[in-house]
Structures are given as C-alpha cells and as structure tokens.
Amino acid sequence: MPDISKPKALQPGDLVMIIAPAKAIESSHVYYAKELFESKGYKVQVSEHCLGNHHYFSGTDAQRTSDLQKALDNPEVKAIICARGGYGCVRIVDRVQWAGIIREPKWIVGFSDVTVFHQRMQRYGIESLHATMPLNYQENSKEAIDTLFKALKGESYSVFSPANQNNKPGLASGKLIGGNLSIMYSLLSTDECPDYSDAILYIEDLSEQLYHIDRIFHTLRKSGILEKISGLIVGGMTDIKDTVVPFGKRLEEIVVEHLKYRKIPVCFNFPAGHMPDNQALILGRKCSLEVNSEGAKLYFE
C-alpha cells in the first residue's frame, strides 16, 4: 500500500462542489446540503448535471464524467461532495483523468457506490472520506454531521460503538480501508482492489441476502484477504434479507465463523453505513481499533 497523502483541511471560504456521479437525485436534497455547507462558512457550487436526469442516472456517462473532471481539475475546489450513491461510479471511474488530484489531493466524500472512488484513492495513496451524503443529511444524527465536518476541517475525533456479544476483543492498528461490501467484492481481482496487508477493514451493506454475504466472505478468505487484515469493523448491515427457506445463520455468526482462527479484533454495529448515525471514517488514515467489554473505539492518528 503506498504512502498516504492527506487532503488539506477545509478553511472558511473554501469552495466545495456537489456532484451526482451515479443515480439521479431530487433537487431538495442538494439545496439543503448547499445551505448546510454555506452555514458552516464554505462556498458551494452545484455541478452542471447534478440535478439532471438520464434514465436511472443524473446524466449520461459523459455528462457525469464531465462534472467529476471539472471538480477534480478546478484548483479552487477543495472537497467533492457526492450527492448520493445508487449505481454508476464504476461506469465513469476509468473515463476520468485523475492527474489533478494526484498532484493536489482534495477530499472525495460519500459512501455506498462511492466506494468505487474510495478504492481508486487507495490505489493512488490519497485519503478519502466515507461519510454521509446530501441525500441523507436531513435524517442524519448530529454525530454523523458533526464528524463529517470535523474530518473535513482536520479536527481530531474518534468513533465509538457499544458492546456487542459477538465482538472479538483486541487491539489493532493500521490504515483504514473498505466501504460497501458488495462494491468491494465486485472489484476484487481488478485494478481497483487495494492492498489489504495489515489494514483495518471496514464493511457495510444494504439489502443483501445472508447467503450472499457468506459467499463474499468465502471469497475474502480464499483470496487471502482475511489473513492479511489486522482488524475488522462491521458497520451498518441494513435490511439484510433471508431466503424463504432460512439460511440457518445470523450475520454475526457468518462473520465470526470465517474469522474463528484469526486472533484479531472484530466489532459489530459500528455507527457507519446506510443508517441515520452514519459517522465519518477517514479511509487511508492510520488508526487504532480497540475492542473490549465496553465496546469498540476507533481512534484516528
């Protein structure tokens, strides 16, 4: 894994750009986000096609690529806020010229389908921010919004989750990588797959079948990833489904079974993912994970 570059902390008056690189979004969410950032002292630009509509997407692949490219190339833009996920980032990730952000790192913010961009930032050795998006701001917890701005401003913070009977205690340190489990699975053995060696892996997902999560963990094991990581954070696994004939294991049982021979800390129900309390995680940042009888705590260095 390459040395990590940190985007500059946001300063009052800095410009952020809101883009919609995947699914179309209603204008009310974007304007609410614009007002929120402006209330914090930042300038906000909404990209040309952010509020567009092209079938499922906010625009054609070319239009969405153009919006991202302009945000990357504009030296005044210090943070790129992805309006929502859905599907579409993988369709444009190879169309973009990333040289600008390699020369001058800036924040890319989002989660879910934006995991595609987070994986690309890992490839280039640039921190990115797994955090809530404009689609969700109005329903988010105070902590989700507070940690978003603390991370962007370079303020120190940590994230805590209560004790869970399925947690595996321990202490680990390493660079934090991860995001949406299904997206990561789809990028295994591609040029977007990061180096998992000694990393703390964070995962979350939405509306997946239990048997499919088991399949993914078999793949993570067979690919050697579960042997490489130093710790595992299981965030929101929201609206997980079972088959008509039950799979026979709960989510926690599936995960624990695949890690039963590894003495690494594992925690569940971490407050990040498809949930109102979606707290910000700095991917690529060196961090420490402590899991004990009181719960789990993630410290960013």
Structure description:
It is a single chain. The longest helix has 13 residues, at 27-39. Helix 8 (210-222) packs parallel to helix 10 (251-258). The radius of gyration is 18 Å and the shape is globular. The chain has two domains: 15-153, Murein tetrapeptidase LD-carboxypeptidase, N-terminal domain (Rossmann fold); 158-300, Glucose Oxidase, domain 1, CATH 3.50.30.60. The protein starts with 14 loop residues before the first strand and ends with a strand. The protein has a seven-stranded mixed beta sheet with strand order 6-13-12-7-8-9-10. With 301 residues, the protein is α/β, with parallel strands linked by helices. The chain contains ten helices and 13 strands. The chain has helices at 27-39, 61-73, 89-92, 99-103, 115-124, 142-153, 181-186, 210-222, 225-228, 251-258, and strands at residues 15-19, 43-46, 77-82, 107-110, 128-130, 158-162, 170-180, 200-206, 231-238, 266-267, 281-283, 286-292, 295-300. Helix 7 (181-186) links the parallel strand 7 and strand 8 (200-206).
